[in-house]
Amino acid sequence: MSESAVIPVILSGGSGTRLWPVSRESFPKQLWPLLSEHSLLQETALRATGPRFGAPMVVCNQEHRFLIAEQLRGAAVQDARIVLEPVGRNSAPAVAAAALLVAERDPDAVMWMMAADSAIADVAALHAKLDQAVVAARAGRIVTFGMRPTAPETGYGYIEVGDALADAPGVHDLRRFVEKPDAATAATLVAGGRHLWNSGMFVFTAATMLAELETHAPDVLRAVADAVARRRQDLDFIRLDPEAFAACPNISLDYAVAERTRHAAVVPADLGWSDVGSWSALWEITPKDARGNVAIGDALLENADDCYVRSDGVLTAVVGLRDVVVVVTEDAVLAMHRDHSQDVKRVVDRLKADGRHEAVAHNRVYRPWGFYEGLIRGDRFQVKRISVTPGHKLSLQKHFHRAEHWVVVSGSALVTRDNDEVLVRENESIYLPLGCVHRLENPGRIPLTLIEVQSGAYLGEDDIVRLQDTYGRN
């Protein structure tokens, strides 16, 4: 890495509720391959690879740490520093933590902050605009990217563009930020030609950002500096101190710094950008058939127009409809008119109020060792499928309220049962009585798949006493 390398900083803290039922808190939209074979997180990281960039930094929810680490490895993104937020505190604290960590090595390093869940069609144009932003950032500016509007969108904030900067070609003074407008205001802004969509991407040096935080949000900087100073390394992760970080105000970078600083600048750009913030937005940027339809998965459309239909589960047929979104997962179905894409969050809020697990988690739940998914649940029993990655193992644990029966479907399982170790092969089974200390490990070279039958008076996931855990969860 050269001394002038740009440090990518990827913020991955959102839950993407407007893309429910695919995006949920336990597995949000940035971890899904919504536009290509790569997830949105992977696409974001791959835009910032090569000799001009340093190793990326990802600031994320600690519950997603293993998923993010695995996705970065899957995309061959090397040497990433993954910073774990113990609680969500919005973008200003996340950026403050990244700037403090980067400044420890080089206060003058240029940082490129971007969300993990945006789409950009023209990466070559993005890099050209980034070059312009870097020049201004080295001159002490905090530079954002303003996207040329294609419609009077009410779901985006806007930026008013000022005069061109003499010392940074292609960069303009930023006059003001405009909150997400109503339809009439948005139409006026777009027609005027001086306003751009706020992409949420920023370029700045670590020193500039820390100085502006000290001026405009000292309480944020003080709390985050304490959390960074008391951090600890955990495997490949940087854990910020929970108590100090929790004391930090919950505030966005826009409110904390960008709208207050005298050094704000904007690069006007036309990159084919989208924040992928709704099913309607996803329909707009996804290739369509001759009738304007998008069909993904086991979906069949007959005499339908301008629809988005996605099935991750059963066959889904849509007949004689126009401008609708139909999304099917294993445990939920969403059907709506595309004009109501912004209302999906209301559905999620109602599900949360009713205590429904579908609001936050999928039927398939990912763990650092693999995943499990529920198949059948009845009175005093349930059946799960468990998949363990080669070389990985579950925690050494016991249960107070349930017994378990494991049947190996493929691969081999090394099972600890109290004082014994038993190798269980394909088509073999083992019984784990209530209260026994046990552990499951995959010693082989292929994924281990088994069927688990639980029986007992209480079958909740919180009936786990971890005695030893490779992943630091006990």
From TrEMBL:
Residues 355-469 form the Mannose-6-phosphate isomerase type II C-terminal domain. Keywords: GTP-binding, Isomerase, Nucleotide-binding, Nucleotidyltransferase, Transferase. Its EC number is 2.7.7.13. This is mannose-1-phosphate guanylyltransferase. Transmembrane segments: none annotated. It catalyses: alpha-D-mannose 1-phosphate + GTP + H(+) = GDP-alpha-D-mannose + diphosphate. Residues 8-290 form the Nucleotidyl transferase domain. It comes from Acidisphaera rubrifaciens HS-AP3. GO terms for biological process: GDP-mannose biosynthetic process; polysaccharide biosynthetic process. NCBIfam families: GMP_PMI. Residues 304-351 form the MannoseP isomerase/GMP-like beta-helix domain. GO terms for molecular function: GTP binding; isomerase activity; mannose-1-phosphate guanylyltransferase (GTP) activity. Belongs to the mannose-6-phosphate isomerase type 2 family. It is an enzyme of class 2 (transferase). The keyword Cell membrane does not apply.
